[in-house]
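Key result, reporting period 2: structure in, sequence out.
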């Protein structure tokens, strides 16, 4: 496997194809089918869209391992793995040695790391278009199950009981409406970018929007609006040159800052209209308490899943006392990640996020649809992270998969550029080509 280093361009050219389906490895049909099956069921299980025993997730994670046995040795040597997620996996595994909840950490490591590895393998095998297509189909599968469950089971429409209070909103078979909401918001962006079939595109968008509204998840609704705004901006500037793009970025940044300031000024009116309290359902109290805990152990954190889980440890009980109720998590992506795997983990995740963003920008500037796909995903994920812990678990797995695909697209682009540069030289030295005579 190639690991984020200078590519062997001759070998990469020999064992990849550039077709109407995008840039892919010569993996063979059985490996491609296995990757597709894994993505559909991996998304369903990894995002906890249906209740399931851990054993099913373990079995599903074995599918990509089987894919490796279906690949020829020459193809295996061309597969790409990104360094930041590898280091993140190692760091999460090592957190088992200092965690405040060894049983919970061991469970999460056994459950989530195999699925993360599976997404890495699939990202190394599928083309950019296949990756978008099967993520779209996986989301459609989850949406169909969620709609059916919401229609058939009254309990999925009654909201969740938290601290003696019923939180209104649909949650389908997801644990909570704020698990369903961000998933649907990101899926909405996937549909807008990747679904080109008018017979499925608009019905899917309408059903997804209805489910989002029914969830009453402010996080989900806000993230969905950002997904639409991000894609609108990207399409408006996709043909812009570097100068116009720079101007567009500056103007958009100024508008975003002005919008943020305006939102802050109008926040009391918004909170009153939506029935929210100034603490955002206690989130500000949670953030304050978790920040205090992070300051106590900033470098290593408290281990993956080391806080907020039952049976509670002494630190969790103290946090709940400060907050005033039993919070399920930190309700913020950065605080959640840092409290679990420390500043070192945050730096590793930032490396993954930033490298994915850069790869997506390069892809977008080359006119590839995949660049817009990833940029919309990153924008939606960032907004969702402001109030939900979406930087670990399934979202990190999908992010890793997207990063690996962008690496391959960058390398193939480099190969194409080198080939174009070499053409005049080959023409000049090829004796079969007519030579110009000079006096």
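The corresponding designed sequence is given below.
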């Amino acid at each position: 496997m190639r690991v984020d280093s200078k590519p062997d361009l001759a070998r990469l050219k020999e064992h990849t194809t550039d077709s109407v389906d995008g840039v892919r490895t010569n993996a063979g049909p059985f490996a491609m089918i296995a990757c597709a099956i894994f993505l559909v069921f991996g998304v369903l299980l990894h995002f906890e869209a249906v209740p399931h025993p851990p054993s099913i997730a373990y079995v599903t994670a074995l599918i990509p391992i089987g894919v490796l046995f279906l690949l020829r040795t020459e193809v295996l040597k061309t597969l790409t793995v990104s360094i930041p997620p590898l280091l993140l996996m190692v760091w999460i595994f090592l957190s088992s040695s200092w965690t405040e909840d060894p049983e919970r950490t061991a469970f999460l490591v056994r459950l989530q790391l195999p699925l993360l590895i599976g997404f890495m393998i699939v990202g190394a095998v599928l083309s950019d278009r296949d990756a978008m297509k099967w993520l779209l189909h996986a989301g459609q599968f989850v949406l169909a199950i969620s709609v059916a469950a919401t229609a058939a089971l009254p309990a999925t429409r009654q909201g969740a009981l938290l601290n003696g209070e019923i939180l209104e909103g649909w949650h389908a078979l997801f644990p909570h409406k704020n698990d369903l909401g961000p998933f649907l918001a990101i899926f909405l962006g996937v549909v807008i970018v990747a679904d080109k079939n008018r017979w499925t595109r608009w019905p899917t968008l309408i059903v997804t929007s209805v489910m989002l509204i029914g969830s009453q998840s402010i996080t989900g609704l806000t993230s969905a609006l950002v997904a639409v705004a991000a894609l609108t901006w990207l399409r408006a500037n996709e043909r812009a040159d570097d100068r116009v793009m720079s101007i567009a970025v500056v103007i958009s940044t100024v508008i975003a800052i002005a919008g943020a300031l305006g939102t802050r000024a109008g926040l009391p009116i918004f909170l009153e209209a939506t029935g929210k309290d100034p603490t955002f359902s206690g989130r500000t109290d949670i953030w304050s308490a978790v920040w205090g805990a992070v300051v106590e152990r900033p470098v290593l954190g408290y281990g993956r899943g080391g806080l907020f889980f039952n049976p509670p440890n002494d630190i969790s009980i103290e946090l709940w006392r400060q907050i005033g109720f039993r919070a399920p998590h930190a309700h913020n992506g950065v605080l959640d990640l840092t409290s679990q795997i420390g500043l070192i983990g945050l730096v590793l995740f930032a490396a993954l996020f930033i490298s994915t963003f850069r790869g997506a920008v390069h892809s977008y500037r080359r006119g590839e649809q995949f660049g817009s796909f990833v940029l919309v995903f990153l924008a939606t994920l960032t907004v969702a992270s402001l109030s939900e812990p979406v930087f670990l678990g399934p979202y990190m797995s999908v992010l890793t998969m997207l990063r690996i695909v962008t690496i391959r697209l960058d390398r193939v682009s480099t190969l194409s550029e080198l080939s174009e540069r070499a053409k005049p030289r080959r023409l000049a030295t090829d004796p079969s080509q007519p030579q110009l005579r000079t006096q």
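Confidence is low (pLDDT under 50) at residues 259-268. Residues 241-281 form one domain. This case is discussed further under Risks and Mitigation.
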